Amino acid sequence: MSIKDILYLGDTDLRQQAGYLAGVMSCSGISFDYLPSNLSFDEKLLKNSYKAVVLSDYPSSNFTASQLEKLAEMVKDGTGLIMIGGWESFQGLDGNYSSTPLADILPVNISDSDDRMNVSSPLLISRELPHPVISELPFDKQAPVIGGLNRVTPKPNSEVILRGVKFTASKTESSYTFTQGESYPLLITGFCGKSRTAAFTSDVAPHWAGPLIDWGDARVNAQADGAEAIEVGNYYTQFFSNILKWLTKEI
Amino acid sequence: MSIKDILYLGDTDLRQQAGYLAGVMSCSGISFDYLPSNLSFDEKLLKNSYKAVVLSDYPSSNFTASQLEKLAEMVKDGTGLIMIGGWESFQGLDGNYSSTPLADILPVNISDSDDRMNVSSPLLISRELPHPVISELPFDKQAPVIGGLNRVTPKPNSEVILRGVKFTASKTESSYTFTQGESYPLLITGFCGKSRTAAFTSDVAPHWAGPLIDWGDARVNAQADGAEAIEVGNYYTQFFSNILKWLTKEI
Question: Where is the Putative glutamine amidotransferase domain positioned along the sequence (chains A, B) (predicted)?
Fold first, then answer.
């Protein structure tokens, strides 16, 4: 029986996108078991007592109906749960979580049609509420950019901690005008029984995470066992480390 | 003997980052031979008469000294050449092109130390000069964001067509202030004998290309033979297609 902190599912493979969150966990002292996006869920994993489960670009078709029900039960019984966005998360292109038992326990309602929003102009992260996950991170002073997110609707009793705010940048002569557009829920937290739940609707890895990956005033080099090495920003690392520590009730 | 338009070297692998430029070429009717970033250069390729060579995250250590000289000779004799940025381009983390014969014929001077600049705040593409590569693309109206670039110095007689302009976005109450910072050469064109040469100092693929990948008012789905399928913006596709067609003197 595994006694790891986190069960991490998705983000393609440890040698590809999953190297990012794996690297963050590795340098934050968070232990994890991992399953890549192209492998069906292994029911034996449900016998382990993880503190939290991370689903990120792991299509719902990898689960059987009964596995999804058992996973939802685990969360009701005390395991934290986060879904991180991407083309195979929430509804997405291939996530298809809208009519699964996980949609019932996440803090957001999931659309029943493609919810992807790709943004080429500045999509800035905006702090909406104080929360231990974001304290001491300079969201106001140096707002980082992301490249897209899944559009979700926060449930009543959830808290929207961060939003993505869209700007259009246009140039006349040599000066730029930034026009503020719509904003979208980005980090939403909630509770399910005694468990903490969360949705982060952008990605932790390219391409949606985009410039956020380099957010920081220092560089962090990290590499989990069997994973691609990463070189990222220290605020990026701190932010995702905080999210996982909050889910596992360490902060 | 191959009669393809382009020799494309780098961007990891067709199943990973190289799927982007390969997809663009595929849907633009541009034929190419390809070599991934982890394979040494194959000298037999120099016997083909390509119209242009694309180097993108293909470390200089993949070439022998004599292969680099022969490639430089080919360019002097009429083959177009572009280097596209990344951690294994220009000097980068592992590009190491500063003291190669290619540094002599590219339109920019390459630093002899790490030239990578990762930017988490809005780094906008700014149009500096008219050029067939960028005509009809709305750089002014909808400036797209990139996530980083290699810092290079344009040579005399080169033309800087695009620059990357850095902004810091800060929030007070609910309103944002954008403060313009430095700008950096992004698309630089030149000539070498009868050949056209260019440097694009950001990446064509994640993570540096970031939000630029989705630039457009319509989506493009494309897939080159043996490559990962891509879904990108139509302006992104047009832009890189234009660059290659300019290098091969089709526009």
Answer: 58-215
